[in-house]
């Protein structure tokens, strides 16, 4: 199982990137959001990956964050949502916005993605609402107020410790709200861990 690639961005296309890892080029399908986050061609980059295997194909899909990959897995678990549609949704919406849309039942927001009609948007919201729950509604300004990159790094730290994406995001948002703007990464992680263990 290939879970991530660290290498040099060799080239990009409309919906894919080629990552050179030790002289081997890996083509990974990607959302527009991921492609824009990879940086300039020739520079070092990291992509989180999901390997799709069918009867007559193998395809590697890449993501700029583990959170985005987790959402891809959730989306492709919904009947009628294939890899292409899931990537279109992730191109149109950031994971936190997608969490909010599903938690609040906002099918119109989900339907903004190319290839997603009202019926499919409704199915996505209905099938994923229980998996997302209402916790995403608390996200927002609290995440934005943290020192640049600190919230994202803190969420990543909790994910590496085995917390689920939504658990990590909510715990970090609560910690950030309590500590206020400019909190250090170390303080955020420590408080977020305490809050996550109580929930």
- The tally of beta strands, per DSSP, is 5
Unreliable parts: 133-148
Biggest beta sheet summary: 5 strands, mixed, barrel
List the helices and strands in order.
EEEHEEHHHHHHHHH
Mean pLDDT metric: 82
Structural class: alpha+beta
CATH architecture of the largest domain: Orthogonal Bundle
Question: How much strand?
Answer: 15-25%
CATH class of the largest domain: Mainly Alpha
Total of domains: 3
Query: How far apart lie the N and C ends?
Result: 31 Å
CATH H-level superfamily title of the largest domain: 5' to 3' exonuclease, C-terminal subdomain
What's the arrangement of strands in the largest beta sheet? 1-2-3-5-4
Can you tell me about this structure?
The chain has 199 residues and is of the alpha+beta class. The protein folds into three domains: 4-63, OB fold (Dihydrolipoamide Acetyltransferase, E2P); 66-136, 5' to 3' exonuclease, C-terminal subdomain (DNA polymerase, domain 1); 150-197, Helicase, Ruva Protein, domain 3, CATH 1.10.8. Helix content is 50%, strand content 19%. The chain contains ten helices and five strands, in the order βββαββααααααααα. The protein has helices spanning 32-37, 66-76, 83-92, 95-103, 107-110, 118-132, 141-144, 150-160, 165-179, 185-198; strands at 4-12, 16-21, 24-29, 44-53, 58-63. It has a five-stranded mixed beta barrel. β1 (4-12) and β2 (16-21) form a beta hairpin. The longest helix has 15 residues, at 118-132. The radius of gyration is 17 Å and the shape is globular. It starts with a strand and ends with a helix. Residues 133-148 have low confidence and may be disordered.
């Amino acid at each position: 199982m290939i879970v991530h690639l660290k290498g040099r961005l060799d080239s990009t296309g409309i919906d894919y990137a080629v990552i050179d890892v030790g002289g081997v080029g890996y083509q990974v399908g990607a959302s527009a959001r991921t492609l824009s986050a990879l940086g300039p061609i020739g520079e070092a980059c990291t992509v989180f990956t999901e390997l799709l295997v069918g009867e007559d194909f193998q395809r590697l899909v890449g993501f700029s964050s583990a959170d985005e990959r987790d959402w891809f897995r959730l989306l492709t678990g919904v009947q009628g949502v294939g890899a292409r549609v899931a990537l279109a949704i992730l191109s149109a919406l950031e994971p936190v916005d997608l969490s909010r849309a599903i938690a609040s039942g906002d099918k119109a927001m989900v339907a903004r993605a190319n290839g997603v009609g009202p019926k499919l948007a409704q199915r996505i919201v209905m099938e994923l609402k229980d998996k997302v729950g209402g916790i995403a509604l608390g996200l927002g300004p609290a995440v934005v107020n943290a020192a640049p990159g600190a919230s994202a790094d803190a969420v990543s730290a909790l994910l590496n410790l085995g917390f689920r994406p939504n658990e990590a995001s909510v715990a970090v948002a609560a910690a950030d709200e309590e500590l206020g703007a400019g909190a250090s990464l170390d303080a955020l992680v420590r408080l977020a861990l305490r809050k996550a263990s109580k929930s």
